[in-house]
Amino acid sequence: MTAIAVAGCTPSAEESSGGGEIVWAIGGARSQPGGANQLIAELWNENNPDSPVRIEVLPEAADAAREQQALVLQAEGAEFDVLGLDVVWTGEYVENGWIQDLSDLRTDLDGAILPGPMESSSWAGDLWAVPLNTNTGVLYYRTDLVDAAPETWEELCSAAAGLSAQGIGGFAGQGARYEGFVVNWLEMYWSAGGDLYNEDQTESVFDVDVATEVTDFMRGSVADGCFTAGYNTSMEEESRIAFQSGDASFMRNWPGPYSLIENDPESPANGVTAISGLPGFDGNAGVSAIGGFNNAVSAFSENAEAAKDFVVWAATSPEAQNILVEAATLPVLASIYEEETSDTILGQLGEVLTTARARPAVPAWSAISLEIQDTIFRAVNGEMESREAAEQLSAYLDTTVAE
């Protein structure tokens, strides 16, 4: 995604109701010196000298950042006040008693923040974090090869079949055995009308028939060439290279590769790349998964009130959220997208985000992801029957519901 300057109000940060330093433990490139998170902290500090934010920079890799937070939280340490959480960590942190219930902040957030990020901050009907930034899966396509984005996966494969006669590959996605595959499969499953849990995660509503249909489709698409060669070993970077080099006519990826393609004059996709929401199945609209970071307040914080003020401000301040936009990162504040038109990249991404969904923030998500990789991935690659894989996954999900 290109770094787009977005016009908006730039009010001063509101003064915190607490006092003392707020330690914000968060990882990722944006938390490094000069990064967007550092700039957000500096903006807060200008107006809240009695409650300044200091970033405790965690590792960029999500697993390593979580491990560092967990070491402090397991010891009930008060070193951290605000915790930057990957969107799939919420349920685990709640079950471990590591974060505070923030349901009393809903009135400040509902309507102002995009619904998908709000969903990712909730567990069992309560709010446990406040969204900071988001991300979403999108479909890339070549406007010199197709007139419009396909609305269904069947249309995409039909177009890919026609292009294969010209020596151009079809769809590039994240088909390797890792979390990216899980996200790709979930997006298709959601887009066929399936779901994993009811609203408060107290019951699995997994649909074996829908899961079988989607898995069979993916398996057939690998076999017949709709999905590009090497799909089952591709992650985000391999997918980008395939599309950027002209070896794929469609790609599912996050917004990041857009600016790389647009800045590569040697790429066959340069100047002819467009994005849209993902295709759907059986008359259902496509659904994209969201990523990003949310801010939670540590259960052991000794400066919780000021920490709550900060996390709400970071989510709802146009000035703070525009810092993310300048860093080519998707904000969560709905009004920023409303100011954009449909012919801008940010405006188009805003449209995708209105229907984007979060992976369920259940405590067992890491284990569920591994189960999908052990069943659905094997079925897509011909090592297991699709229905058998779906039935095994369904039985496993029944064991993971919230109490």
Please give the order of strands in the largest beta sheet: 2-1-3-11-6-12
H/E element order: EHEHEHHHEEEEHEHHHEHEEHHEHHHH
Derived from helix and strand composition plus strand pairing, the structural class reads: alpha/beta
Number of helices: 16
Calculate the terminal CA-CA distance, rounded to whole Å: 41 Å
List the helices and strands and how they pair.
Blueprint: E1 22-26, H1 36-47, E2 53-57, H2 62-74, E3 82-86, H3 90-95, H4 106-109, H5 115-120, E4 122-123, E5 126-127, E6 130-136, E7 138-142, H6 153-164, E8 171-172, H7 179-191, H8 208-224, H9 236-244, E9 250-253, H10 257-262, E10 273-276, E11 290-297, H11 304-316, H12 318-326, E12 330-331, H13 334-338, H14 345-353, H15 365-380, H16 386-397
Parallel strand pairs: 1-2, 1-3, 8-9
Antiparallel strand pairs: 3-11, 4-5, 6-11, 6-12, 7-9, 7-10
